[in-house]
Amino acid sequence: MATFFKRLAKSAPIAFGFQSNSKSRITFGALAAISGGISSYYYFSSLNLVYADQLNEDAAPKVALNPDKWIEFKLQDKVQASHNSQLFRFSFDPNVKLGLHVASCLITRAPKEQDAEGKTKYIIRPYTPISDPDAKGYFDLLIKVYPDGKMSQHFASLKPGDVLEVKGPIEKLRYSPNMKKHIGMIAGGTGITPMLQIIDAILKNPDDYTQVSLLYANVSPDDILLKNKLDVLAATHPNLKIYYTVDNPTKDWRGGSGYISKDMVVKGLPSPSDDTIILVCGPPGLMKHISGDKAKDRSQGELSGILKELGYAEDMVYKF
């Protein structure tokens, strides 16, 4: 499994398994009270209703996540994705799905220390899985490991067989097929993760005709996460366009250079319209430059930055 996972990371860092669930249909015959009187009819009808409720409960889809309870997921494997980022695959019951909507994130926690009363304090951070929400038995996280990042250092210390506590999902933007004719995306660094979740949902659905344009900013070409996978998707799906820009280009770099500019947005993303939406996710500096950050209560907040200057309205922009 480790060799297979590493091979995937080099060619197209995450391979998604698409599995469809067959749905059973149960038909109940009408119960006629031919004899025994009205009381017998109601008695047997009640039994049928109880039985139907039990079948419906058994047929309800079971998911691995719980929004109100911390669940332990075992690390199956991890692999280096870039010079400072790693891919982590966590496993669970292979017969169930994770229980994630597009686009949603998870909440993770790790023990930090104990307080004066001996109670454990935790580091808590949200992350967006990049695996297919319909996949059964596993989910994948892409984590950038910072030297002073308490949670990312915890991830880096994990070994196959170790467990991670997870709660969720936390829904961000509820995506539905063809909700907009054209979706523009601006991402920086690991801000690519919710974008990829939506991109995959669109591209795997033959009835979704949404056009997607992505501007992806990084420090250097080596910092571009999941570039192999993104390039394959763009090459095989005409409704996906990607433009990369980096702060420190190399001599052989053929993409853009510098911060995302007004010109890049005008040329690479859909114009302001009721049929378009621009999604933004990245570090605070990028958010402030492009759209303004979210409010202190984590609501969308006021729109500012390049997008406001170019005439986009608040309902045309979504900040992750």
TrEMBL record:
The cellular location(s) given in this protein's UniProt record come to: Mitochondrion
Task: Cite the InterPro entries for this sequence.
Answer: CBR-like, Cbr1-like_FAD-bd_dom, FAD-bd_FR_type, Flavoprot_Pyr_Nucl_cyt_Rdtase, FNR_nucleotide-bd, OxRdtase_FAD/NAD-bd, Riboflavin_synthase-like_b-brl
Keyword Cytoplasm applies:
no
User: What Pfam families would the database entry show?
Assistant: FAD_binding_6, NAD_binding_1
Q: Which Gene Ontology cellular component terms are annotated?
A: mitochondrion
Q: Could you identify this protein by its name?
A: NADH-cytochrome b5 reductase
Q: Which PROSITE patterns match?
A: FAD_FR
Q: Which residues form the FAD-binding FR-type domain?
A: 68-176
Q: What cofactor does this one take?
A: FAD
Binding residues annotated for FAD, in chain numbering: 125-127, 142, 144, 150-152, 193
Q: What class of enzyme is it?
A: oxidoreductase
Its lineage opens with: Eukaryota, Viridiplantae, Streptophyta, Embryophyta, Tracheophyta
GO molecular function terms attached to this record: cytochrome-b5 reductase activity, acting on NADH
